[in-house]
Amino acid sequence: MGLEQLIGEEKIRLRSHAIWEMEGRPEGRAEEHWRRAIAQLMAELERDLLAALDERERAEFVIPRPQVHEPPQHLQADRCDPHALSKAA
Prior knowledge:
Low-confidence stretches: none
Helix content: 55-70%
Distance between the termini: 69 Å
Largest sheet: none
Structural class: mainly alpha
Order of helices and strands: HHHH
Radius of gyration: 33 Å
Number of helices: 4
């Protein structure tokens, strides 16, 4: 994948044009402006990705509690004879 595909040719073209205008519209420097536009946009993309990763690391993950519609019922087990258990085994 080329850099142009990662950033998008339209964005590069617009940035390159802005650089060209900021420099007073010089002739014969289109390739230089194109490379500078790619470099600037890649730096911005890297900065945004690092910021997103940093934000993700700081995010708290909360597991929602399930909704309880009825209160839990307290069940009491019957008492059993421990000797009866050993006889059943």
